[in-house]
Amino acid sequence: MKNLIKISLFVFIALGIMSCSDDDNPNPDPQTNTIADFVASNDDYSSLKAALDKAGLTATLAGQGEFTVFAPNNDAFAAFLTANGFATLDDVPVDLLTNVLLNHVVIGKLMAADLTTGYVNTLATEASTGSNLSLYVNTSSGVKLNGVSTVTTADVAADNGVIHAVNTVIGLPTVVTFATADPTFSTLVTALTRADQPDFVSVLSTPEGTSPTPFTVFAPTNDAFADLITELEINGLADIDGPTLTAALNTHVIAGANVRAEDLVNGTVSTLGDDLIINAPNATITDPNGRVSNIIVVNVQAANGVVHAIDKVLLPQ
C-alpha cells in the first residue's frame, strides 16, 4: 500500500511538472515558415524585406495570427520608387513606407478561392480618423487590386497566413482610385473626365494632409446615371451642358472632412456645389430639388477621403 501511494504521488508530481512546462511554453511547436521567413529566404523579395525591416514590420509578419499578404517583388519596388521620385528605399519617409506596406496586409487567411469582387480592409489607415483603408478586389479576370496590381502567384502557404505575389506596389488609394478601379462607377468617371469639365481627377487625387483634403464623396452608380438620363428625357450625358454638369458633380463632394457613415448626422451639409439634407437613420440624402437618394454602400475608405455609393444623381438648385 505504501508503494502504491509512492507511485501515485510520483505520477502526480510528474504530471504537475509537465503541466507547468506547457504553461511556460504556450507554443511548443514554434513557427518555422512565417510570412517573414518566406520573404527573407527569397532573393526576389529582398526589397520587400528591406522595406519591412525599415518600417519595423518584420516582427509582425513573423508573429502569431493569420495574415493575407500581397507581396510585391523587387521589380515592383523599383517601379514604385521611380514613379514617386525616390532614388532609393532609404529616401522614402518611414511613416509613408509603413502605411504603404500595411496596405498590402489583410487580417485573416484569404486563399485565392476566398477572394471575391468587392472591398476588403487593409491594415493601412487614413490620417484624420485612423480608419482602415479599403482595397478593391476584382476577380472578373484573375485577381486585380485597386485596378493597378495583379496577383501573379497565389496561395503561397505560411505558418501564419498566406502570400499572394503581385506585380505592382499597391500605393495608398485616393477617392479617384476607387472610382476608376470599380466598374460600378464607370459613368461617373466619364462625367468627371469629360473635356469641358474642370480637372476633377487632379483635385480629387490631392494627397492626404493637403488642402482641400480629406474629401467625402457621394458617388452615383452607373444605374443612378441611367435613371437621371431617363428622368431628364435626354439621350445621354452629352446632352447635359458643361456648367450644369460641373455644378452637379460638385454637389457630390464635401471638402475638408472624412465623414464616415457612423459620423453622419441629421441636418444640412454643404458641398462644393450646393447644400444637401442628410437623414442619417434612414441613410438618405435630399438634394435642393427634393429628390431623395439612398446611400447603398458606405465607408469605402481612401487615404484622402471616403466614398459612399448612392443610387440617385444629386442635382443643385
Q: How would you describe the shape?
A: elongated
Strand content: 25-35%
As a percent range, the share of helical residues equals 25-40%
Number of helices: 11
In the CATH scheme, what's the topology name of the largest domain?
FAS1 domain
Annotation, overall tally of beta strands: 14
Task: Provide the succession of SSEs.
Answer: HHHHEHHEEEEEEHHHEHHEEEEEE
- Average the pLDDT over all residues and give the rounded result: 92
Question: Which architecture of the largest domain would the CATH scheme give at its second level?
Answer: Roll
Q: Structural class of the secondary structure composition?
A: alpha+beta
